[in-house]
Recover the amino acids of this structure.
């Protein structure tokens, strides 16, 4: 049997340990200084670029500290956050936890995804003409329930553009079915349907411990489920709808279903 020098055996062992020990978690905070999200592998090296952390290769978890995060630093209303298969995005951290179980969630969460690009919104949807059409847009990307958003407040989406940007102010799902847990949709609006959330063409998200409060739309102030070809049938577990509103006489302020 061929013998390998001890040096090469030890080197190979160390390389193997390094490979298996590489972190698959990326860290995001409002005080992050890392301009390369792919290397934000601890709170000390965190980034402010949430979408960049989600998109980084090999990532399975993204931990996001308390604070407010916007889809863009510009005034481009058509820029939104998007989720990714196999990536669990967790909010509500203080920014020092070493374990996911160390996270203590508040309700609503201290971590907010906001479409209020200028930071000037006032109560009852005032000054929201500049806001993102959708805070989160999962658009025909075949997301499944391995894409998880857990522990966030989603607010300030204003879907008042041309179709389809007139539906789903907080989150718009098109032919996609992510998972959501411990999320609160607050103060989102749409001129058509789904102020808080739109599920379109076979979008079947799974929602657990989520709330919809003070969202507004022409119909389906909290949520709208639509499909001209395939029905959208979300699964809601321990979810609530409070103070949602609709402008359609006889319409649904909570959840509306459109088919056909």
């Amino acid at each position: 049997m061929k013998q390998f020098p001890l040096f090469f055996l030890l080197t190979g062992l160390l390389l193997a340990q390094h490979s298996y020990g590489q972190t698959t978690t990326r860290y995001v905070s409002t005080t992050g200084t890392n301009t390369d999200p792919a290397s934000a592998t601890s709170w000390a090296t965190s980034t402010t670029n949430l979408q960049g952390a989600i998109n980084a290769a090999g990532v399975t978890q993204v931990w996001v500290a308390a604070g407010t995060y916007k889809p863009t630093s510009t005034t481009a209303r058509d820029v939104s956050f998007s989720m990714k298969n196999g990536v669990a995005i967790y909010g509500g951290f203080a920014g020092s936890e070493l374990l996911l179980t160390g996270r203590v969630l508040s309700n609503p969460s201290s971590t907010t995804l906001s479409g209020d690009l200028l930071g000037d919104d006032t109560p009852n949807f005032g000054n929201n003409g500049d806001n993102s059409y959708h805070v989160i847009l999962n658009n025909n990307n075949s997301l499944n329930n391995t894409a998880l958003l857990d522990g966030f407040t989603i607010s300030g989406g204003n879907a008042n553009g041309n179709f389809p940007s007139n539906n789903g102010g907080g989150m718009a799902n098109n032919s996609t079915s992510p998972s959501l847990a411990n999320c609160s949709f607050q103060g989102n609006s749409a001129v058509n349907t789904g102020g808080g959330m739109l599920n379109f063409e076979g979008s079947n998200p799974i929602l657990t411990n989520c709330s919809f409060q003070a969202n507004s739309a022409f119909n389906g102030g909290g949520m709208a489920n639509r499909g001209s070809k395939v029905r959208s049938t979300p699964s809601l577990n321990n979810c609530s709808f409070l103070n949602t509103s609709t402008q359609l006489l006889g319409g649904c302020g909570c959840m509306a279903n459109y088919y056909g």
Residues 38 and 57 are 7 Å apart (CA to CA). The longest strand covers residues 88-93. The mean pLDDT is 88. The radius of gyration is 20 Å.
